[in-house]
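Good morning C.,

I know you're traveling, so I'll keep this short. The sequence:
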Amino acid sequence: MMDFSPVGAFRFWQRNLLIFRKTFAFTVPENFLEPVLYLLALGLGLGAYLREIQGLPYVAFVATGLAASAAMFGATFECTYNAYVQFYYDRSYDAIVTTPLSAEDVAVGEVLWGATRSVIYGTAFLLVVALFGVVRSPWALTLPGVFFVSGVVFSAVALAFTALTPSIDLFTYYFSLWITPMFMFSGIFFPLDALPGWVQTAAWFTPLYHVVRATRALAFGSPAVAVPDLVWLAVVAVAFLPLPAVLLRRRLVQ
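The tokens, ready to paste straight into the viewer:
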């Protein structure tokens, strides 16, 4: 039985927010560098030759996908490397569970904080690319909610892996075998229609595929297109949220 308190999870989330307020000036810009470089190299560089794709300007096609990936990376880095350092090196989690907060409070609070980072990075990147005419619909105002729900998914999976991995070096496999394939085959840079059927099927089962589709649909005013993807993300978020709580408790309470 899970020893979980919403108040306890909020307190842990609040702790992370206080730390973030002191570090955001140098942590936020570094997370923009990679997607901005991709946008410049592919969206503007390749976009000079490939004007439109699926009826959209190529730079807008890529920019909306990169906004979704920025949200993914924000949650993923928070619940992999950052969480691992707190867990294994700083022993912050061990200290926290000696307070009234439980291991489940720590896990859920960490996931919610990862989802918050997802909102911050995804929304901020979207505001930047809005200068390129990407945001064309008021429905784009709902995208922070999309980034939050998807952030729960990415954070829960990342924190579950963190709770299981015995070495920080193994995160190389997590990024190489999970994050990078999603980044390349989720429809960010090109449609998946021309790829083999098994690739399209595999992509459908990854969360980033649905975040990209929902982000692109809402940014261009097609909310009905986004509904199936939002339902998929919500169901997976609810299903995966307990996983890191169970695994983290096993590691912290022995």
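Safe travels,
E.
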